[in-house]
């Protein structure tokens, strides 16, 4: 990520959590995300890498559930907020400054690689998926939360499935239409893609 892009995310760090689905401050929104993720993850204390973790809302949520959580993000400002959040929730989350496209971890380290609204923004999604999959232990799960936004940005579920199935046999999609997840009604395509081996 370039310095300009990093600067944009750093500038948004202080207010990023104002969106209900970013900060998970509303107990109902937080509970909706916990209910969504719990059935698709292996039992705690599985090792989870949250790629592009931003302000650490999902990382903190999973750490509270007993997972061994690592987060990587290219924005120092976002990571500062994430560290404060983990401390407020009294959980341990290993937060690392690094490139979401090439996280600075050795291969076969994680039981789950999870990302939320990141893959669509990276310049070579196929190469990125190859790198993320390499970080999984045998039998590990890839959990992608993505969308095709009303602005025209994003990646469709069909395109995401095609990318994943070019690398792994299984790719199941669940549409995320429940407004409890977002704190408001949504009309664009939002989904969770789960790939287990």
TrEMBL record:
Keyword Glycoprotein in record: no
Top-rank lineage group of the source organism: Bacteria
The UniProt record lists the keyword Methyltransferase: yes
Entry's Gene Ontology molecular function annotations: methyltransferase activity
GO biological process: methylation
Listed EC numbers: 2.1.1.-
InterPro entries hit by this protein: Methyltransf_11, SAM-dependent_MTases_sf
Protein's name in the database: Class I SAM-dependent methyltransferase
Organism from which the protein derives: Dactylosporangium cerinum
Upper classification of the organism: Bacteria, Bacillati, Actinomycetota, Actinomycetes, Micromonosporales
């Amino acid at each position: 990520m370039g310095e300009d892009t990093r600067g944009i995310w750093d500038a948004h760090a202080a207010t990023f959590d104002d969106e209900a689905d970013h900060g998970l401050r509303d107990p109902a929104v937080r509970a909706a995300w916990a209910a969504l993720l719990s059935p698709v993850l292996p039992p705690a204390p599985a090792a989870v890498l949250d790629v592009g973790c931003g302000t650490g809302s999902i990382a903190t949520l999973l750490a509270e559930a007993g997972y061994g959580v690592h987060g990587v993000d290219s924005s120092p400002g976002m990571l500062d907020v994430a560290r404060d959040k983990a401390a407020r929730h009294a959980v341990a989350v290993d937060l690392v400054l690094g490139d979401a496209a090439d996280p600075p971890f050795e291969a076969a380290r994680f039981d789950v690689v999870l990302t939320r609204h990141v893959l669509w923004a990276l310049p070579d999604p196929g190469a990125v998926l190859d790198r993320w999959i390499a970080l999984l232990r045998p039998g590990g799960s890839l959990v992608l939360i993505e969308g095709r936004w009303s602005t025209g940005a994003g990646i469709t579920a069909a395109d995401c499935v095609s990318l994943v199935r070019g690398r792994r046999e299984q790719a199941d999609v669940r549409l995320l239409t429940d407004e409890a997840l977002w704190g408001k009604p949504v009309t664009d395509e939002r989904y969770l893609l789960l790939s287990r081996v």
